[in-house]
Amino acid sequence: MDKKVVVLIRAGVPYKNTVMYGKQRAREAGAKLVLASVVPALGVERRTALASFEVAPYETISRRNEEEAAAYLDRAVQFCLDNGITTETQTVSGGMDTAIRQFGRDASVKLVVVPTPTKKEHHSEFFDVLDSFKHFTQDVLEPKLCCPVVSVVAA
Description:
By secondary structure, the protein is α/β, with parallel strands linked by helices. It is built from five helices and five strands. The protein has a single domain, classed as 3-Layer(aba) Sandwich (Rossmann fold), CATH 3.40.50.620.
């Protein structure tokens, strides 16, 4: 079983510091670096909010989210290529918490690296900066995880 260090990539949140940190930890652990693009799912809460504002059909919004996530992942991969970083890619549907749980339960994953949003415009799916660590410890991290989850300031 190959060891992996997973770096979560969320469209709109800077990724360079997160990728560089993940690369260093992967090298130290003798693990593969995996960039995982998180595509937000349209859950009940988001569908209700979108319906109340009559934004667009759910399918259109879903497709746009997938396209945005793929394009952003391509930029992150290009950053890796420009810096001589070898990586694999993967796409996960759902929120950041879903992705953390999914990778955290995989025994081959030795570390999950999550970007911490630093600016108001980065918070489309994240929480307020002051509450982010509280949410991580109460909602995201759970005893079933097999590896540490590290949050890197994505400046």
